[in-house]
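[Amino acid chain]
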Amino acid sequence: MIESQNGIVRNYSVLGVMSGSSLDGLDLAHCQLHKNDQGWYYEIQQATTRSYPRHLSNSLASLNTLTAEELLDLDIRLGAFIGETIRDFILEKQIDTLDCIASHGHTAFHNPARGYSLQIGHGATIAAVTHIPVICDFRSLDVALGGQGAPLVPIGDELFFSDYDYCLNLGGYSNISWQHQGRRLAMDVCPVNKAINLLAHEAGEEMDRNGEMARQGQVHKPLLKALHSLDYYRQPPPKSLADGWFNSEFLKTLRSADHLSLNDRLRTLYEHIAVQIARSTPLLSGGKMLATGGGAHNSFLVECLARQNKNQIVLPDPLLIDYKEALVFALMGALRITGEINCLSSATGARKDSSGGVIHTMKSSIFF
């Protein structure tokens, strides 16, 4: 960290680490973060995505079947993998200085109504492997304050991307944030890549690349109506999605149409996603919407979004598309070590803003 004598100019070197619900790998983004009296600025210097070894991906895909002891074991194994992956990345990219690692971990269970949101990927193990301060468990404090613990990305939307009217992430699930009367509002919208990839697997594909299969299908109106009718979509924000709801509600509805062709089911799913995102943007017409996340690479999905949405969809450079979430967690780490707000109650529904994240460090650390 470099800090000016008057405390106005600050620079941080942070590694943001993200494991998303679509299980497409571990994202790492080495970010230089700069704050002056004008605000926060960023540069993603180096980034990569590393695939999970099969034993980890299989375990992560079957989290809901694990015993408590097996879950604890997976927490440690994932933490060791994250730590070793970070260590290799640092050596490969010849990174000289890191103030901290900000690790989101992988969401195992998320039920804020019952007061918990669990991200595994053991922070203490990451710190022990890398000998670098680690900040993790960003959601728990917000949940304890009565919030959803999600979405967390709106703090980055507010500090880095406020020039856009909407910020949309198309990951395993989609989430969106926007400014309204001086407050940053947000919510999880609907499943995206998690559902698309699941259907694509039926054809032996990891994904529906560029929507090639969906483009050949037709919208099935009864299935579309059934998906739109799910109770979640009638709830007001703030609200958040989790795998439990996906498996028990969304997937059950989607599977009720297994008699349809794969292409028709995919096409209907794309239409559902586009309509739900359009419904989540009622405040503006003709504004600018920043779209990032893996789904932003899907050209047919973007076409569907553009047909339904009255806002201009803006696709940034591929680096930001792929690593915006890791960038924001790097920012959240920097905000945590300075004691600044990194979780917005207006986005999560908590009783108040907070600075969340558990810090793991060692006496040998010169930073803390």
